[in-house]
Amino acid sequence: MTLRDEVERRAHGRCEYCHSQARFSTQTFALEHITPRSRGGLTVSQNLALACQGCNNHKYNRTQSVDPATNQLVPLFLPRRDV
Ligand SMILES: [Zn+2]
């Protein structure tokens, strides 16, 4: 089993952020680094999430963002930690 197979199976073929299904997408889903490589994240199963192109592009290398409701800097959703 490849690393990609493992991540896709764990995610049940859905984007781990918006839950859209890869089988209905016209674009291949990415293996997104939860902790970005630019911040020391490793290419290992626990740090990879299946992500649609929209979510992958929007998150880019961020791990936190400003909440528009509170104007506070908050951590982004982490598929391995948050539900
Ligand atoms: Zn998505």
Care to describe what's here?
The chain has one domain (3-75): DNA Binding (I), subunit A (Orthogonal Bundle), CATH 1.10.30. It contains two helices and four strands; from the N terminus they run αββαββ. The chain has helices spanning 3-10, 53-59, and strands at 30-33, 48-51, 64-66, 73-75. The protein is globular, with a radius of gyration of 13 Å. The structure holds zinc ion. Residues 15, 17-18, 20, 51-52, 54-55 line the site of zinc ion (ZN).
Residues in helix, %: 10-25%
Instruction: Give helix and strand order, one letter per element, not per position.
Output: HEEHEE
What is the count of structural domains?
Answer: 1
Distance between the termini: 26 Å
Indicate the mean pLDDT: 95
Tell me the strand order in the biggest sheet: 1-2
Question: If helices are DSSP runs of H or I spanning 4 or more residues, what is the number of helices?
Answer: 2
* CATH architectural category: Orthogonal Bundle
What's the story with the biggest beta sheet?
2 strands, antiparallel
CATH class: Mainly Alpha
Q: What bound compounds does this protein have?
A: zinc ion
Provide a short characterization of the protein structure.
This protein has 83 residues and is of the alpha+beta class. The protein has two helices and four strands.
